[in-house]
């Protein structure tokens, strides 16, 4: 790559595109805010719907320079432009994640994808093969790993502050699917998430249980070795699970419990994690994300606060505001994009990558978790190993 091109990459905002996220979508606007928060990138092109009118009007609402009603055409045309996009965000229903990602990876465009990565493990493995051969970056938005407090928790455990891990409890409770919302023609989010053709083999476990499992493995540094799962569809007529409870065995001997529900009355987005070792424990609540509780044996609890006394290099790097100025979901999302966009610049300049964000490997782990949870429950809640 010529020096002039290197200078151009260093001196300009990265150019981003988006597939999905059109009118009626939930997460697309969140991605846009997050990716543009630091001023390092701007979304300029999109295929925000397969419906031409919705694609056009959604792009106009976002003031995009270019719009498409076909992601295949978008990948080809953007790759051919001198001012084409450097990366693309995928925020479609699950069944489109892999075909869209493959189209852009094979066109030489870096990809950030919503989770879960696919609708099946086999499909995820086919994508992993394309990621490996394409030479392009692939990131996955397991957002909760972007909180500074979770980076601090991970480092404390890695440094041995908790001692030998014994137990991990993680729960993710919501109530938005308490009623058969998918029967409402206007409830597009509920419709596709409860539809096996678009969501895959699971609703609740795939949608939020995968987040809980990813956070557990990220913070503890231990992979889930096996699980025993009980999945339920409490709402009559629902095709996929809306609640799940699991026992977990982690590598190294620790045990765990994972509970997730989308029919837990009164809950909003109640994600919590507690980790216990033989020296200390940790506790964190996503709805109060700036506080991490450290519980040393025989001593008073310590309240570790974002922007005040988080010590790890990663936590400090991802902290954005002075102490007492709350940071939340958008900032955590933006932290993942900060790390990903840094590597996009590195890749465009043929420089070593830094990492720090979820990748295709996390996507594969997530699909193995989902498939084994479903298989365990269908077999009568028997223990299943995660390969």
Automatic annotation (TrEMBL):
Superkingdom per UniProt: Bacteria
Domain GFO/IDH/MocA-like oxidoreductase, residue spans: 150-282
GO terms of molecular function: nucleotide binding
Domain Gfo/Idh/MocA-like oxidoreductase N-terminal: 15-139
Protein name per Swiss-Prot or TrEMBL: Gfo/Idh/MocA family oxidoreductase
Species assigned in the record: Pseudomaricurvus hydrocarbonicus
Source lineage: Bacteria, Pseudomonadati, Pseudomonadota, Gammaproteobacteria, Cellvibrionales
């Amino acid at each position: 790559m010529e020096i002039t091109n290197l200078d151009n990459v260093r001196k300009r905002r990265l150019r981003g595109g988006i597939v999905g996220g059109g009118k009626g979508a939930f997460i697309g606007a969140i991605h846009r805010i997050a990716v543009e928060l630091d001023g390092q990138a701007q979304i300029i092109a999109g295929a925000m719907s397969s419906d031409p009118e919705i694609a056009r009007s959604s792009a106009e609402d976002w003031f995009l320079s270019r719009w498409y009603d076909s992601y295949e055409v978008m990948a080809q045309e953007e790759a051919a432009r001198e001012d084409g996009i450097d990366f693309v965000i995928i925020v479609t229903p699950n069944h489109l994640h892999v075909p869209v990602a493959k189209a852009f990876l094979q066109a030489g465009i870096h990809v950030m994808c919503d989770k879960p990565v696919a609708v099946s493990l086999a499909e995820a493995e086919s994508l992993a093969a394309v990621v490996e051969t394409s030479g392009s970056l692939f990131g996955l938005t397991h957002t909760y790993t972007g909180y500074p407090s979770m980076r601090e928790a991970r480092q404390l455990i890695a440094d041995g502050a908790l001692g030998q891990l014994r137990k991990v409890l993680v729960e993710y409770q919501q109530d938005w699917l308490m009623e058969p919302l998918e029967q409402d023609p206007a409830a597009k989010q509920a419709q596709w998430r409860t539809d096996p053709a678009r969501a895959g083999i699971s609703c609740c476990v795939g949608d939020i249980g995968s987040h809980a499992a990813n956070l557990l493995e990220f913070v503890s540094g231990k992979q889930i070795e096996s699980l025993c799962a009980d999945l339920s569809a409490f709402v009559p007529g629902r095709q996929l699970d809306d609640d799940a409870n699991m026992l977990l065995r982690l590598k190294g001997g620790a045990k765990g419990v994972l509970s997730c529900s989308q029919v837990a009355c009164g809950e909003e987005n109640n994600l919590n994690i507690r980790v216990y070792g033989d020296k200390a424990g940790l506790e964190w609540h996503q709805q109060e994300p700036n506080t991490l509780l450290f519980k040393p044996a025989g001593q008073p609890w310590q309240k570790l606060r974002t922007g005040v006394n988080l010590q790890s290099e990663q936590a400090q790097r991802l902290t954005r505001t002075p102490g007492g100025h709350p940071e939340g979901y958008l900032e955590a999302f933006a932290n993942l994009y900060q790390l990903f966009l840094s590597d996009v610049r590195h890749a465009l300049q043929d420089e070593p990558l830094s990492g720090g964000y979820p990748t295709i490997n996390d996507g594969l782990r997530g699909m193995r978790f989902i498939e084994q949870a479903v298989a365990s429950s269908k077999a009568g809640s028997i223990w299943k190993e995660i390969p």
